[in-house]
């Protein structure tokens, strides 16, 4: 990589912050007053919300634990989010935010980035759901404390943590298609130390019915109803946490997240496979060390060390799915560190500094090939700075930030597994800069204005750089996709009266432009090559609202309207809606509750989605209704029954991969 030197722009940016502070605010008093020590997750969220300029959706534990859910189902209820699913529970699912691709959205689990360098978006179906405590969805801009930034945004998933008193939680769920989930959690914080242990076992046959057109879309005479075959799913996960408080300012936490998944691969609907399957073993380990008042009272120190291991074994020895027979084992290893310093310069300036290092290696293996060699690796070094500037007694907040990334890719020799087209060593090194600036104007305690502007990028993955299976010729000259995002909006939140509480209303207008989009171009009958030839634009707006009426009726709704267009050079695609992106989407939820139980209903409507770049394969308007009822027996036991997709609307997000119709689920939960 050569010498890792901070660029001239980065140094100028730091000096700019310090000079502006001295020039504009030299007369301001330097007394910091009381330094608040944040002790709980709730207080941390409230403190962050005070200075945060980003538009963020926070999904809390209460919403996650309501009935039978999985991660894709929970995320798709959020404003600006579109989930692309290929089947039922555990099937491949990816996320799009404000019309982005799945690779342009970064997924974090307890501070560890799940996006991998070999390519493809994160499969949301692989992430254990029962362990999740809360989810933050950053639409567009995001804080610099994350080790990377995405063109589309960031999804930050936080797992459950120990509670102060001893708690044992158990849950059993059962439903349609022989679906089941069993989990148990134990946590305690008796003193300076605390611990959390969680085990989850989930499975489903996923043998739902679907309408098969036998590959003749316009001939209805041969259509028939079939069941999905070889679509079963099993998942076992184990989460362990241990923490120790040295004192009120110093803490260490160890986390290990292990999960193993098995998935039958059914193939397309009119030619289902009988035997293909995928097995995944993944382990994530991390250590978090926090020290407040490190050298001076105004400085907080945070260090995160992590390592991950992921093994994927794909077995299609009969050649039912891909091109020819396959029996592959792909192993990905990564390790890294994130160091964050937060320095309270004075009453109006809070400086965040980030240094991040990550190394990732990818080693594929093909049991049908005699020659097995080579690894692909990516080394990333990042540094960033962010300044939270609060002016006029916190009535105007501006948060500029800058990040510099140095990236080195290396491909060594001929690879098996992913049968790379190249046999020689290859290297590429790049450096990229991203910046963003956010503004917040708290007009009153309950009303605020926000705006954000930023530049982001996505680095080409190994698949694009080095090729795959001989049919794809790699292109080591590719440059990163670049995105320009901006948004502006307002947020209203507060209590109106004793009968109207927790009123929240948010309206946002956004514009996104992406250049150097990578597309695969056919250059012969048998091969294609990725090129930076496309670009896209998206404009739209988001509305979100919720309210609590008479302390027993909760209403929430959100609406997204956008125009995601392909602005590339290919005539058949130009000015067409990007495939898989919804023109509009509407979600609403109603919940009537008291101390004895609750009744809840949700509705989702999606309009104008195309499955192909030329917009020749539209999806009809999709409407999904869900309903459920819960009974509470004091605070120790509850039972929930729900019906999903009441109208049995059978649809698909990807051609040939149907989604489940009507289904029923029962949930029982115990607290000891």
Automatic annotation (TrEMBL):
Keywords, sorted A to Z: Cell outer membrane, Membrane, Receptor, Signal, TonB box, Transmembrane, Transmembrane beta strand, Transport
GO biological process annotation, one example: siderophore transmembrane transport
Ranges where the TonB-dependent receptor-like beta-barrel domain occurs: 182-646
Topology class, membrane: Multi-pass membrane protein
Location in the cell: Cell outer membrane
Any GO MF annotation of the entry: siderophore uptake transmembrane transporter activity
KW Ligase (keyword) present: no
Gene3D superfamilies reported in the protein's UniProt record: TonB-dependent receptor, beta-barrel domain (2.40.170.20), TonB-dependent receptor, plug domain (2.170.130.10)
Classification via PROSITE patterns: TONB_DEPENDENT_REC_3 (PS52016)
Main location as per UniProt: membrane
Residue ranges of domain TonB-dependent receptor plug in the record: 53-154
Transport is among the record's keywords: yes
An example Gene Ontology CC term for this record: cell outer membrane
Sequence similarity: Belongs to the TonB-dependent receptor family.
Name the UniProt record assigns to this protein: TonB-dependent receptor plug domain-containing protein
Organism from which the protein derives: Candidatus Schekmanbacteria bacterium RIFCSPLOWO2_12_FULL_38_15
């Amino acid at each position: 990589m050569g010498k890792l030197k901070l660029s001239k722009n980065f140094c100028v940016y730091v000096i700019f912050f310090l000079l502006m502070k001295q020039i504009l605010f030299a007369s301001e008093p330097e007394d910091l007053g009381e330094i608040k020590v944040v002790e709980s997750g709730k207080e941390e969220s409230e403190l962050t919300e005070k200075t945060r300029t980003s538009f963020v959706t926070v999904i809390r534990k209460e919403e996650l634990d309501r009935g039978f859910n999985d991660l894709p189902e929970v995320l798709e209820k959020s404003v600006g989010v579109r989930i692309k699913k290929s089947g039922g529970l555990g099937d491949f699912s990816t996320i799009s935010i404000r019309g982005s691709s799945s690779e342009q959205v970064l997924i974090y689990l307890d501070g560890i980035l799940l996006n991998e360098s070999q390519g493809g978006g994160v499969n949301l179906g692989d992430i254990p759901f029962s362990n999740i405590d809360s989810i933050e969805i950053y639409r567009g801009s995001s804080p610099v404390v994350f080790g990377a930034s995405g063109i589309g945004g960031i999804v930050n998933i936080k797992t459950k943590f120990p509670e102060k008193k001893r708690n044992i939680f158990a849950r059993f769920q059962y439903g349609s298609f022989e679906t089941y989930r069993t989990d148990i959690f134990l946590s305690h914080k008796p003193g300076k130390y605390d611990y959390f242990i969680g085990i989850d076992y989930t499975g489903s046959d996923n043998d739902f019915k679907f309408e098969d057109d036998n590959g003749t879309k316009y001939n209805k005479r041969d259509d028939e109803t079939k069941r999905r075959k070889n679509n079963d799913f099993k998942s076992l996960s184990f989460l362990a946490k241990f923490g120790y408080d040295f004192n009120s300012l110093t803490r260490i936490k160890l986390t290990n997240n292990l999960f193993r998944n098995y998935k039958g691969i059914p193939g397309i609907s009119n030619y289902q496979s009988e035997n293909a399957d995928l097995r995944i073993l993944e382990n994530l380990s991390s250590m978090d060390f926090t020290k407040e008042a490190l050298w001076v009272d105004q400085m907080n120190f945070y260090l995160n060390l992590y390592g991950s291991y992921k093994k994927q074994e794909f077995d299609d020895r009969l050649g039912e799915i891909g091109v020819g027979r396959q029996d592959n084992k792909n192993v990905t290893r990564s390790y890294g560190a994130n160091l964050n310093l937060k320095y309270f310069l004075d009453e109006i300036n809070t400086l965040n500094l980030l240094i991040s290092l990550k190394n990732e290696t990818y080693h594929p293996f093909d049991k049908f090939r005699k020659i097995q060699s080579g690894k692909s690796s990516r080394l990333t070094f990042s540094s960033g700075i962010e300044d939270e500037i609060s002016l006029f007694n916190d009535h105007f907040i501006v948060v500029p930030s800058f990040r510099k990334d140095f990236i080195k890719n290396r491909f060594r020799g001929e690879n098996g597994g992913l049968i790379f087209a190249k046999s020689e060593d290859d290297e590429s090194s790049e450096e990229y800069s991203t910046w963003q600036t956010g503004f917040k104007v708290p007009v009153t305690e309950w009303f605020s204005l926000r705006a954000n502007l930023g530049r982001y990028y996505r680095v080409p993955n190994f698949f694009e750089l080095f090729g795959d299976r001989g049919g794809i010729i790699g292109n080591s000259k590719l440059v990163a996709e670049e995105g320009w995002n901006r948004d502006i909006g307002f947020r209203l939140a507060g209590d109106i009266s004793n009968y109207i509480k927790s009123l929240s209303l948010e309206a946002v207008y956004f514009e996104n432009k992406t250049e150097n989009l990578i597309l695969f171009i056919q250059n012969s009958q048998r091969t294609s090559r990725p090129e930076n030839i496309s670009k896209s634009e998206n404009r739209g707006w988001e509305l979100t609202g919720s309210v609590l009426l008479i302390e027993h009726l909760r209403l929430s709704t959100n609406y997204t309207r956008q125009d995601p267009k392909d602005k590339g050079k290919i005539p058949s695609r130009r000015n067409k809606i990007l495939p898989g992106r919804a023109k509009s989407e509407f979600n609403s939820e109603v919940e009537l509750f008291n101390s004895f139980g609750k009744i809840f209903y949700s509705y989702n409507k999606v309009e104008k989605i195309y499955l192909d770049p030329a917009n020749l394969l539209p999806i009809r308007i999709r409407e999904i209704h869900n309903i459920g009822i819960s009974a509470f027996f004091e605070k120790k036991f509850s039972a929930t029954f729900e019906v999903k997709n009441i109208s049995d609307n059978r649809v698909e997000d990807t051609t040939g991969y149907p989604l489940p119709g009507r289904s029923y689920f029962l949930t029982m939960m115990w607290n000891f």
